[in-house]
Specification:
The protein is an alpha+beta fold and about 200 residues long. It is built from 7 helices and 5 strands. The chain has 2 domains: about 60 residues, Ribosomal protein L11/L12, N-terminal domain (Ribosomal protein L11, N-terminal domain, 2-Layer Sandwich), CATH 3.30.1550; about 110 residues, Ribosomal protein L11/L12, C-terminal domain (Arc Repressor Mutant, subunit A, Orthogonal Bundle). About 45% of the residues lie in helices and about 15% in strands. Strands 1-2-3 form a 3-stranded antiparallel β-sheet, covered by helices on one side. The chain has a two-stranded parallel ribbon with strand order 4-5. A hairpin with a 4-residue loop joins strand 2 and strand 3. Helix 3 runs antiparallel to helix 4 and helix 4 packs across helix 5. The protein is flat and about 80 Å long.
């Protein structure tokens, strides 16, 4: 008779460094047994983050399956950065080459929802873009920098207009029932284009 599955959990630990803790306590497994088995299986992966799927059975036994490191971790490694951009539209924090992109895609292929390397490369390139990392050869760096600069300018203009509207609203509340001098917030399209 097959064992009854009571829970399936998706967690992430650094390779070779799993320790008993709150994330494992709720699973109802023998924590030292899991951490020992996980650490033995992942000790050669140099401390990289390792996603793991743990299947827990009614008799408190378990099995686990390790996955490849997250694409974002591999991209940060390849680009030599500590973190992605706070705003990927306005900031470019690093670059990777097409060869590095292909290497990451080949590494991640077993865990992705495709068997084609080209599709995997597109997925990894999308992750890189969302992190503010440019793939050289796929995207022109100068164009990406110009687009980021334009997006930053658009955000600054929008913030300035929002501040002006908030100031106008505050003035309207302060002068309720009194005559006030009105300053135009929006400029004509010609004047706005000159900036």
């Amino acid at each position: 008779m097959a064992k009854e599955i009571t829970r399936i959990a998706k967690l992430e630990f650094n390779a070779g460094q799993a320790k008993p803790g709150p994330e494992l306590a709720g699973l109802g497994i023998v924590m030292p047994e899991f951490t020992r088995a996980f650490n033995d299986e992942t000790k050669d992966r140099n401390g990289e983050p390792v996603p793991v799927v743990i299947t827990v059975y009614s008799d408190r036994s378990f099995k686990f399956e390790t996955k490849t490191a997250p694409a974002s971790y591999k991209i940060k490694q390849a680009a030599g950065i500590k973190s992605g951009a706070a705003n990927a539209k306005t900031d470019i924090v690093g670059t990777i080459t097409m060869d590095q992109l292909k290497e990451i895609a080949e590494y991640k292929l077993v865990d992705l929802n495709t068997n084609k390397i080209e599709s995997a490369m597109k997925q990894i390139a999308g992750t890189a873009k969302n992190m503010g990392v440019v793939v050289e050869g796929l995207v022109d760096l100068k164009e990406a920098e110009a687009a980021a600069k334009a997006a930053a300018k658009d955000i600054a203009n929008a913030n300035a207009k929002e501040a002006a509207l908030e100031e106008a609203a505050a003035t309207a509340i302060e002068t309720k029932g009194q005559a006030i001098e009105v300053n135009a917030i929006a400029q004509s399209a010609e004047e706005e284009g000159d900036k």
